[in-house]
Design goal:
37% of the residues lie in helices and 22% in strands. It is α/β, with parallel strands linked by helices and 277 residues long. Strands 6, 7, 8, 9, 10 and 11 form a six-stranded mixed β-sheet that branches. Strands 4-1-5 form a three-stranded parallel β-sheet. A two-stranded antiparallel sheet has the order 2-3. The radius of gyration is 21 Å and the shape is elongated. It binds arginine. The site of arginine has 16 residues, from loops.
Amino acid sequence: MMKKLLSILLAVGMSVALMGCGGSPSVSSGVPSADSSPLHLAQAGVLTMATSAAFPPYESYDGENIVGIDADLAAALAERLGLQLKIVDMDFGSLIGAVETGKVDLCMAGMTASPERAKNVNFSTSYATGIQAVIVGEHSDIRTVEDLYAMLDEGKDLLVGTQEATTGYLYATKSVEEGGFGENHVVGFQNGAAAVQALMLGKIDCVIIDNQPAKEFVAANRALRLLDTEYVSEEYAIALPKTNAALEEAVNQALAELLEDGTVQTILDKHIHAAEE
Ligand code: ARG
């Protein structure tokens, strides 16, 4: 962590030093030029969007390309803003830091606009809703969320899988009184696909994950079943740096237009329809 911070600081220091040399600004050194436009982008002329691409239908790989709702929406936003789009893939837990430090301009990752995260980043208007859902193995006795609590009451060693650093992880690790299952009963995985893998291997009893990816995972695998019961409902939004009002305004303005003219709905329908077939 400290090392990373240091190298970021060094990189910033270096580009400041380069700019300070007073040479012609058009020298192509291979170093992306700092953005002098009012949007203060990570890279001039480019909207750099961070995501965590193991979360279909919001983001996943199709060959080498990252596709999905967030990729399409980011492309539409970039177009409105007259910018190129660059998508950077990283661990879900690194997204907020990347936005905070300005390494990227924003993040779109089916990310829930939670009060905890709002301490570090600003959120755009919401563009979609998510519901935390529960996946079990096809032969599991678990039928409802209440069955999970019954297992705890009976002293069974329930293990709930979630994706690290997600709201699902946060909820599940809370105490039973607060609507969770207690830290000892929760395993955090690097992403949803890894959690589902562990479920299929019988290492955990269920996976708590947002409903659209849940549907995709279940549709892709007969050995899985989705519970009818919903766990928690939330709003997805774009995370933006707290210190860039111009960018935030431009993004919210463009997003409002895309919500208004039906582009967002078309994008959602395109990908969510696929998940429900
Ligand atoms: N909505 C949940 C959250 O914000 C999960 C998002 C996970 N997204 C991803 N791209 N892996 O915590």
